[in-house]
Amino acid sequence: MQALGFIETKGLVAALEGADAMLKAANVCLVERTFVKSGIVAITVTGDVAACMASVDAAAVAIEKMGGTLLSKHVIPRPHESLEGLMVGAAASDEGAADMISQQKPGEEQNDELEKAEFNRIFVEEMVKSNGIDRAISRLKRSRSGEIKGLICHEYPELGMNEKAAESLTKRELLERLNEFYKRVEDM
User: Fold this and answer.
1) What is the C-alpha to C-alpha distance for residues 31 and 42, in angstroms, rounded to an integer?
2) pTM of the predicted protein model
3) Which residues contact 116 (CB under 8 A, 6 or more apart)?
4) Is the confidence at residue 98, as pLDDT, over 60?
5) At 84, phi and psi to the nearest 5?
6) How far is CA 95 from CA 87, 100, 106, 109, in A?
7) Are 5 and 79 in contact (CB under 8 A)?
8) DSSP type of residue 119
9) Residue 44 in 3-state DSSP?
10) DSSP string covering 126-177, please?
11) How confident is the model at residue 84 (pLDDT cuts 50, 70, 90)?
């Protein structure tokens, strides 16, 4: 299990502002949002330790800047594996996404946990196989540009894209390249 980062706020708007800042600040994945009680909302992210720390700190700054109330923030660098099933979704583990894909029936809509999982080529190919290329690209549009650049550069050598070349492309252009790749594969 990767590190876990938490913020707890008073009010939904502050929680959403914090979650947005967390996801934009570092390479983390949203695991869950929990309504505790009395307007208290907890947001949980997962990623490497440095990313979780950066995202939690960014959330604190963003919430303070907007005038919201941050009740607490915390990072657990190496959570015990029994926490995985107890309080956080399966997306917090590296195997979580693969398990959810294997349990999904062909053509079945992907659940929320799967959307939160980090994706790789296997994840994308499963989406293409079960939902078609257009729906898969539509889901990838919800991802950050950096994630898509990393995916294409590191897991699609057929596209001949290095990091320098990927940096000059927009998210839309990167997704078009991926779309064209799968359309060619489909035609074979």
Assistant:
1) 11
2) 0.48
3) 29, 30, 31, 32, 89, 91
4) no
5) -55, -50
6) 17, 9, 20, 20
7) no
8) -
9) strand
10) HHHHHH-HHHHHHHHTTS-HHHHHHHHHHH-GGG---HHHHHTS-HHHHHHH
11) low
Is the model's pLDDT at 70 over the cut of 50? yes
Query: Which residues neighbour 62 within 8 Å (Cβ) at sequence distance 6 or greater?
Result: 17, 18, 20, 21
Closest CA to 90 of 108, 113, 72, 111: 113
Q: Whole-angstrom Cα distance, residue 81 to residue 150?
A: 28
The dihedral region occupied by 160, where left means phi > 0, alpha psi between -120 and 50, and beta the remainder, is left
178 three-state secondary structure? helix
CB atoms within 10 A of CB 85: 11
Q: Give residue 127's pLDDT.
A: 83
* Distance of alpha carbon 51 from alpha carbon 161, whole angstroms: 25
Cβ atoms of 66 and 38 closer than 8 Å: no
pLDDT (tens digit per residue) in 3-20: 899 999 999 999 999 999
